[in-house]
Amino acid sequence: MRQLDCVRSDGKVVDLSVCEELGLLKQWKLTTPCVVDCPVNCLLSEWTPWSECSVTCGLQGQMVRSRSVIQPAHEQGRPCPSQLSQTKPCPIRPCYSWLLSEWSSCRVEGILHPFVQPTLTI
Predict the structure, then answer these.
(1) Most buried one in 9, 12, 20, 84, CB count within 10 A?
(2) What integer best gives the mean pLDDT of the chain?
(3) E strands present in the chain
(4) How many Å separate Cα 64 from the centre of its chain?
(5) What share of the chain is helix, strand, coil (3-state, %, to 5)?
(6) Alpha-carbon span 9 to 13, nearest angstrom
(7) Is 86 helix (H, G, I), strand (E, B) or coil?
(8) Are 54 and 62 in contact (CB under 8 A)?
(9) What are 30-65's pLDDT values in tens digits?
(10) How is the chain split into domains, by residue range?
(11) Distance from CA of residue 104 to its chain's centroid?
(12) Is residue 16 classed as helix, strand or coil in its secondary structure?
């Protein structure tokens, strides 16, 4: 911003209204836009919800959540963190499966003697 004064020929500053009443043109620009760099802090999104577990059962599963940079830091503002995702272990869930045994030895059922067929009476 600049100041504009009304000055008499002997160098004395007089009221602005004197110059205005004389119709003197104001040919100078008194303001001009300027760019002032201000610190801007990093702005992050909210965390996403935790993901589903990476395995359905057992001890090795992990869940993940993340967030993203909405506005990077500028001019000495608080910088963005380098870690934009987090992981945590899943709750322990036991695994279940079928266990099939080997075949048992064969046995013949319903025969009283190895060489005699049973008879059926009606």
Answers:
(1) 84
(2) 84
(3) 6-7, 13-14, 43-44, 62-66, 69-71, 85-89
(4) 11
(5) 5, 20, 75
(6) 9
(7) strand
(8) yes
(9) 677 777 788 999 999 999 999 999 999 988 899 999
(10) 1-34, 41-92
(11) 58
(12) helix
For residue 18, which amino acid is it?
Answer: V
List CB contacts of 87: < 8 A, sequence separation 6 or more.
62, 63, 64
pLDDT tens figures, 58-108 = 888 999 999 999 999 988 899 999 999 999 999 988 888 888 888 888 877
Q: Which CATH architecture does the domain made up of 41-92 adopt?
A: Single Sheet (2.20)
Whether the CB-CB separation of 57 and 94 falls below 8 Å is answered with yes
Q: With beta carbons less than 8 A apart as the criterion, state whether 39 and 77 touch.
A: yes
50 contacts 61 by C-beta, under 8 angstroms = no
